[in-house]
Design a protein that fits this description.
Radius of gyration: 20 Å
Number of helices: 9
Number of strands: 9
Order of helices and strands: HEHHEHEHHEEEHEHEEH
CATH topology of the largest domain: Rossmann fold
Shape: globular
Oligomer: single chain
Helix content: 40-55%
Largest sheet: 7 strands, mixed
Strand order of the largest sheet: 5-6-4-3-7-8-9
Amino acid sequence: MAQQKKVSAVVIRRLPRYYRYLGELLSTGITRISSKELSEKMGVTASQIRQDLNCFGGFGQQGYGYNVEFLYMEISKILGVENGRSMIIIGAGNLGRAIAGYANFAKRGFRLLALFDNNPALVQQTVGNLTVYSMNELNRFLQSHQVDIAVLTIPRAAAQQVTDQLANTGIRGIWNFSHMEVVPPPGICVENVHLSDSLMTLSCNIEQMQEQES
């Protein structure tokens, strides 16, 4: 279903969570659920769920709730994963290899094609069933393969340079783990991931919990 208006980033960030919960419901054979029941499972208010889904057309029926499979498929379309996305990883160190080995990407429709690195000791190694190519081969690879997303697991000093190199290559998105918020070229979306932010958020929540207990 096409979006009729610009949706806030906060709502978009909640969509993968809805998608995940709906997939879990489908796997247990649940075919229908109300916003109240879904709210109890997710810890989000029923009103918030309705507001979020209304940004895309609603999908629910009064007195019936939501058809789980239909809603799951509609959110899949909104997230753009229905037809899959192809990816490469730039940086074949520990983090790059860990991401390459994460099986759930394939289950979500993301196809990893190759890894790239500028370390000669890593080039031509295999990670699972994937080859590590030299960075010198990146442009040629992108010319001969349709790649939607580049995953950056490289030092921050190289992040902007590599991002600039991806301009006009067909890459539409960058998933950036470099600890530097890069400026994308026109036509490319960036999702900057800071693992330490999530850890510090957890630490803050522990602090608040301890203050309430004392």
